[in-house]
């Protein structure tokens, strides 16, 4: 397929001909008999992996296989926040690498992913929480990441509509990362799909994995799918939400639980919220999309689920949290809500590693932070698949850290998935 | 979700605390770190019926051993964990 470059000039040219000349952005391929690498999962992570396999390593005989349509899972069910405001050394370099990739992504992909660096403001509501934020901000700055600790007056200048003198949750200040922001979830998926497809990657939709093909030594040599057997040298799983299910085809038992997380969007409003704002006394985050809808979410429902829908008690909880920090949103009507299935690991951090099964590689356990990680996840997983060794910034995301005790527990919540 | 507590009858799930997939039996000390890591961190995480523990925190304060379908949230059985020996 001929590569089309997007620019102001192509837009103007197509505008003059009534926009009838646009070609599909990527090829919808049928499976071949054999590939060098198969990536399971046509979400952001899987497509980014295929893109960077081709771009960084020249490996183009690659298939991305997807059980539904690309971007129809968690890539289309998140709250589109990108940030790198982490605390622990195992996490900061990885997420900062991701944020740097976000910053150059649109030029690299020649695709508008609507990356909007309007900042993320984490609010604190006690002296102790301000101390913890100061520590996190310092950890970020030690790793070369931007962080600013704001006092209440500075927060008030940014977001005068907050309930500063709330009786239970007064606002003591905030930790601001100015380079954080949001991106357009389906733009990201389509941008990576187009970039991968242009370089020869086959994107195969409606192709569900039902098992692995293994040789006498136990090595994975292919996948069984709803569209037949496909052979390959290496298989990478990027199926967060369903990692345990796919891994069970290779008899793997992983430190992952699937949980449902709900998210919400309001009717479209005029610009009211400057960036992403989070509530520190509970778990609530809100931003405003370019279309005007308030996009927000809170905690997991708290029980294992593959149902992609949650319960009303969390709807009530999230709305109460919204009212506790910004009462002005109380008059906005909720337009839609949805649930996505989170791959919750037992320390709250992801896994990008080989598995005990030869030929099978794992990218998963993204908890509810997978969207922001999309470019770096693909970058590092491609590195692992191509070179058979971890990328330096993802070297801590080992599968065996649970046995060795080298956990990356940002929250220190213990081995309980619904608290991560 | 409504949970049928053996003591209290039909109660809203917000009264209960979810503790997670019912773990495998604690391994013998001699079995070493990998066996203990699997006991603490390993999960079957099935898409379908799952045995799990719930605690009726705002009710009779009993630990319950529940079988629930993770695809539909249907409760298939609710028993007292103490009666099941776990």
Strand content of chain B: 35-45%
Query: What is the CATH superfamily label of the largest domain in chain A?
Result: FAD/NAD(P)-binding domain
Q: What oligomeric state do these chains adopt?
A: heterodimer
Terminal CA distance of chain B reads 24 Å
In CATH terms, the superfamily of chain B is: Folate-binding superfamily
CATH topology of chain B: Folate-binding fold
From the alpha-carbon coordinates, what is the Rg of chain B to the nearest angstrom? 14 Å
The number of domains of chain A is 2
Q: Helical amount among residues of chain A, as a percent range?
A: 25-40%
Q: Shape of chain B, please?
A: globular
Can you write the helix and strand succession of chain B as a string? EEEHEEE
Describe this structure in words.
The complex is a heterodimer of chains A (420) and B (86). Chain A folds into two domains: 8-16 and 29-84 and 86-111 and 184-254 and 347-419, FAD/NAD(P)-binding domain, CATH 3.50.50.60; 120-179 and 257-345, D-Amino Acid Oxidase, Chain A, domain 2 (2-Layer Sandwich), CATH 3.30.9. Helices cover 29% and strands 26% of the residues of chain A. Chain A has ten helices and 18 strands. In chain A, strands 1, 2, 8, 9, 10, 11, 17 and 18 form an eight-stranded mixed β-sheet that branches. In chain A, strand 13 (276-279) and strand 14 form a beta hairpin. The longest helix of chain A is centred in the N-terminal third of the chain and has 18 residues, at 92-109. The radius of gyration of chain A is 22 Å and the shape is globular. Chain A starts with 7 loop residues before the first helix and ends in a 16-residue tail after the last helix. Chain B has 86 residues and is mostly beta strands. Chain B is built from one helix and six strands, in the order E-E-E-H-E-E-E. Chain B has a single domain, classed as Folate-binding superfamily (Folate-binding fold), CATH 3.30.2270.10. The A-B interface holds A 242, 244-245, 248, 253-258, 302-307, 311, 313, 346, 402-403, 415-418 and B 1, 12-14, 18-21, 33-34, 37-38, 40-47, 50, 52, 68, 70-73.
